[in-house]
Amino acid sequence: MNKTRPLRIAVAGYVDHGKSTVIGRLLNDTAQVREDRFNKVKSLCENTGKRFEFAFLLDALEEEQQQGITIDVTEVPWVYNGREYTIIDTPGHREFLKNMVGGASRADAAVLVVDVHEGIKEHFHRQVAVMALLGVPKIIVALNKMDLVDWSEKAFLQREQELDVLFKSAGLKPPQVIPIAAWSGANLLSKAAEMPWYKGAQLAQALSDLPPVSGEDLAPLRFPIQDVYKFEEKRIYAGRVEAGVLEVGQRIRFLPSGSESVVQTIEVYGELERKSARPGDAVGITLADPLFLARGELGFEPQHPPKVSRTITADLFWLAPKPLVAGKSYSFRCGNAELLAQVDAIESVMNSETLAQGEGTSLETGGIGRVRLTLDKPLAHDFFKDGEKTGRFVLVEDFRVAGGGRILSDQRAYLSTELSEVTVAERSKRFGHAGLVVWSTGLSGSGKSTIMRELEKQLFAQGMNVFVLDGDNVRQGICSDLGFSETDRVENIRRVAEVAKLFADAGLIVLTAFLSPFSENRQRAREIIGAHRFVEVFIDCPLEVCEERDPKQLYSKARQGEVTQFTGLSSPYEKPDSADVILHTDKKPVAACVAELREYLAQHQLRR
Amino acid sequence: MMDGESRLSALENESIYILREAYRKFPKLALLWSMGKDSTVMLWLARKAFFGRVPFPVAHVDTNYKFPEMVKYRDEKAREWGLDFQLGRNEKALAAGMGPEKGRMECCKALKTIGLKEFLTEKDYRAVFVAIRRDEEGSRGKERVFSPRDSQAKWDYREQPPEVWSHYQSEMAPGSHMRIHPILHWTELDMWLYIKRENIPVLDLYFSKNGQRYRSVGCAPCTGSTPSLARNVDEIIAELKTTKVSERAGRAQDHVSAYAMQKLREEGYM
User: Which of A144, B123, B244, B266 is the most buried (most CB within 10 A)?
Assistant: First the structure.
């Protein structure tokens, strides 16, 4: 099915350059203004002794009509040549830039109205830069008030040249430029007799020539979770397809959690059997497994993953009255994901005259710059160039959208799972198993290392690529700078998780044996490694038994005060409440525990 | 000509997204239902967004001046659709004899603006779904999807929050509330095309009897009928494609003065 919606055209322009008049005339000259609305404007103008103001058809607020400016954005439907449009009338006054951004952010194309006589003002440069940043795909410039320059081709060409230079510095292709006179309707709908030298399209024709909106269904699937509803026995994951096609029976993975399942049904109320959903569709899905998924998780096909980042580089426009400064934190929203972002650095600030990037320490209202942000949690996203909808974000301050940006491709920035040309599937095929991390946790002396070493021996004998990470081999090298304070222990676990992640990326089975006493820490490890290849094993053994075993004499040292902050005695151990496997080493011998663990892995993980 | 189904589906998808976003952000909210076609379509969309159940209360701020058939229709549908229905009314103003003869603006303000404000305060709702559309009249054209109101329910149309890439303002200062407009982007014709597609039951008042029908339905004393021969949904669609008169021409409060609706809405009218 050919899926089209009205094309959205943002019309912008500086105060008094004639933007609302252009729209008013397009509506009026195609007979799309209702009579009583026309008459209301007519009598209003007659009563105040003005000529008919086409702009008043849109600028409906009292202040707008009295001051002759557009304060806020509005939308009107328009039909031309059988095609449907939504015209978005956006203000041009600098003070109302935030309203322009709101309007332009939902546009498929923009018409910028420029007074040929007054020429290109600094504010116009900013508008072009913002449009470029928003990713408005096509910009047409209507050079208005050609009558004031005697319909001169020379004046037109000069402005056209200036526009080419300006657009180039904003990183855009030269715009289509059309000479018009809005008050008389010249070159809006029909050819202007006064400008025989102009051979190009009239404005309405140029809008007709715009390509249809692409549905982005050829892109890889992106399905962010907007909310999860539990109605009766059904768990419905609601969301809007942002790119690609969602299909029943498809494998779907979610980041940052790493959970994976199969799309069981697509739920649309009133439809019995929906088989697929396309970009823009707000649907619900059920999954074969009852996954715990929070709002903001991003669903995708396993072979086309998004990026996962804690730091991003972005080009950003700023709208809030208070300037953006480095060091400050803002609410961060990308799709349905909501995080906190701290501005690490303002790398450059754009000069609004030349559009060149230069140095700067803050972004003022209306400013544009390049920033580095650190997020409080991992974010699943795309680079803007690969996927607009999942590659852009806003910052929020004082409850309001304060700025927005596009995420730049920056190899420093993201934690890639798929940098290599060699795929995960190819590695699994060669090794006969997928990369996996078996993460054990338990008190000192509970038997973590013993069990993991035994498991390593058995799996290796079976032909698997397996390796144990424990305190003995990690603390000697990669973590030799760390002590045993709480901060150092947290950092130790973070590094272990990162190393385990790389080994798992390489296709190895990694067995870890660390006390890892804090749940939050283990949760972080799960996030870093990816939940779909993370098995948590709780080696559950009572403190008294561990203390009695005391293989390294640590308990006795702790009791004598030689070791401080000792887990179980002077520092807490937070038991996992949802471990995948629990082994009671006080009740079963090592061999039985290892057998139990192998049984679990065979059933759940190693088959893949 | 474009595929009309797709146009409607795109509108529907956007509304459903907004409804779900609002419900997520404001668990304590209600949907305002006047039984007119717009809020009935909004209610229909809410049923679709939440898979057949409306997970929040549906409220009617009654003025006691509604057409009797509206009340009957309301009670019938509330039962049929399993709604958690609530009624708000400015009893004090009604007891003091408020009515359109005291002045249309005064009456709208007392029975609708203040009626709504008191209802929201009394029930402690932080947000309310309202079925206004941009193409209804000029000041609504300037609205936001998530439109904050201060503690006096006032609309600060000079300083509206930016809405960028489907990111709406979703938090606000204590004491204020949010008006959420899920069908802001629909036109009058869209409403009827959708009513046809979905076969949504609407009030009989919209259909022509003796050469007259109501295009927009409000309180009986202030709603005028318009000459029309459209007796069913198809005929209404055909009529709207050629009409030269706008939808709210029959709503008296809009025409009290040039900026009447802007003034009413600034004070908290729907």
Answer: A144
The chain A residue lying nearest B134, using CA atoms, is: A75
Identify any residues that bridge with A238 across adjacent strands, giving them in sequence order.
A227, A284
Residues 26-65 of B with CB under 8 A from A: 47-53
Give CA–CA dist A58/A74, Å, rounded.
7
With contact defined as beta carbons under 8 Å apart, do B58 and B84 qualify?
yes
The burial class, CB within 10 Å (0-12 / 13-18 / 19+), for A412 is exposed
The architecture CATH gives domain B4-187+257-266:
3-Layer(aba) Sandwich (3.40)
* Residue A105 neighbours by CB under 8 Å, 6+ apart: A134, A404, B163, B164, B165
ipTM entry: 0.92
Domain A424-604 has CATH 2.60.40.10: no
Whole-number pLDDT of residue A226: 98
Mean pLDDT to the nearest integer, A556-561: 86
What distance in Å separates the CA atoms of residue B70 and residue B67, rounded to the nearest whole number? 5
How many CB atoms within 10 Å of residue A9?
24
Q: Does B157 touch chain A (CB under 8 A)?
A: yes
Strands (E), B34-129: 58-62, 85-89, 127-129
Question: Is B158 part of the contact surface with chain A (CB cutoff 8 Å)?
Answer: yes
Give me the pLDDT at residue A521, please: 86
Residues of chain B found within 8 Å of residue A20, distances taken between Cβ atoms: none
The answer to whether domain A307-415 has CATH 2.30.36.70 is: no
